[in-house]
Amino acid sequence: MKKCLFVVVAILFTSVAANAQLRDDKNMFNHMSLGLNLGTGGIGFEVGTVCTPYLGIRAGFEAIPSFTVSPKGIANIHVNLPADYQNLPEQIKNEYPVQEYMEFNGKGKVTMKNGKFLVDIFPGKNCMFHFTVGLYAGTRQIGNLIASQVDFGTEPNLEVVERYNSDVNNPTSQVYGRSPIDVNMADGTPLFYAGNAVPAEIRVNPVKPYFGIGVGRTVPRKRVGVKGELGVMYWGTPQIYNGLSNITECEEIHDVTKVSNKLPVYPMLKITIFGRLF
Q1: Which of 7, 139, 196, 217 is a Cys-bridge partner for 156, taking CB atoms 3.0 to 4.6 Å apart?
Q2: Which of 6, 4, 59 is nearest to 33 (CA)?
């Protein structure tokens, strides 16, 4: 986020410096505006200037305030029980009641922060309609999630596994020296967990090309103006990480990824109120 703000500030000062040198003799960068925007990209601000009657540029920052989500049934994980465990006497098994299948619900937060550099292209000198191309750049992570097992007995399954794996290294334990229990995804990817919590992150491309259409000049002709815009930000197919492992293709979370795989672009709809600075 600090890098995005640095880029925005650098662009602003560059524009002001260029304005001081060029507005008198080349009639470029001779107007500037400051706006506040609200939309699907979040809440933000923009600084705009005019290059020619057909071209305007904008730079700014947008952020979606963090909000909580609580998805249900996001994964079903299978525990591979080694022969050492399966051959244990029932009495000892009852002390380590490991379930072979686990269902998880989740709770997490979603947020997004981006700096932006956009170019408005107007078909006509006095035209209000415009095309916009540009880039959004920001954080790779747009969400984090903690999944917890549901429908367990007196103790969550992962905690039982953790206790069992600790005891196989304890010389005073009844299961000392036996093979540990591995918790893997179906493709063999180890599951990273702590207690009953399985952390996950949702990541997208940090640099995101943008294309849109809109109505409104980059710098309003009057003191205050309104600008509407509709576009798409290409952020790539969202990837889901558990620890250092990319588990996007794992079949256990297919119900999640079958939706996220269809969202390589993020829809952008926003309204901006601009004030003309000069």
Answers
A1: 196
A2: 59
- The burial of 36, by beta-carbon neighbours within 10 Å (0-12 exposed, 13-18 middle, 19 or more buried), is given as middle
Nearest to 229 by CA among 139, 113, 134: 134
- More confidently predicted of 80 and 218: 218
pLDDT digits (tens, 9 = 90+) for 28-46: 778 899 999 999 999 999 9
Q: Which residues contact 26 (CB under 8 A, 6 or more apart)?
A: none
How many distinct structural domains can be found in the chain?
A: 1
Q: What is the DSSP letter of 237?
A: S
Q: Give the domain range for residue 87.
A: 2-276
pTM: 0.77
| Residue pLDDT, tens place only, 99-113 | 888 878 888 888 899
Copy the structure tokens of residue 161: 């596994």
**In the block, residue with structure tokens 């079903």:** 76
Cβ atoms of 198 and 148 closer than 8 Å:
yes
Tally of residues, the chain = 278
Closest CA to 119 of 188, 51, 180: 51
